[in-house]
Amino acid sequence: MSTTGMSNTSSADFRTLPLSEMETIISRFDERVNAAMRKDVIFHRCGNVMRLIPELIDLGVDVLDAVQPMALNVDEVGRQFGGQISFCGGIDVQRLEDFTPQQMKDAVRHSIDALGKPYGNAYVLTPANVITPSVPFENIEAMFQACHEQ
After folding, report:
1. Under CATH, which architecture does the 11-149 domain have?
2. What is the pTM of this model?
3. Cβ-contact 142, 101 below 8 angstroms
């Protein structure tokens, strides 16, 4: 339903999708599950979802997964919506193979600074998709190191 360049679902179209079903699910979840124990509603959608984030916040979504740097400007996402919704992702999987370990650490620091630190660290640092076997282990190690250094 979307591409990495631009979501082909407008905010208006998103509201006509099974929105009432989503609202019902989230509402029932909040009433039944969250009444007993606090659990977050995590919404996964690939691509450029910038126009949909306000709708997701209104629905009561707690975490947006996955923030894809190749589709979204992480600085802009953080500036506009940080503190209103938490983020998951932020590391460009299409560059993991090409990064040096230092570039990997820089990308981690940038994502934490853009999506987490200013907003109470409400951020789950992950690649925006899977880590393939072709990614050098040194880059994976650098990602963990940089995260722990923050």
Report:
1. Alpha-Beta Barrel (3.20)
2. 0.79
3. yes
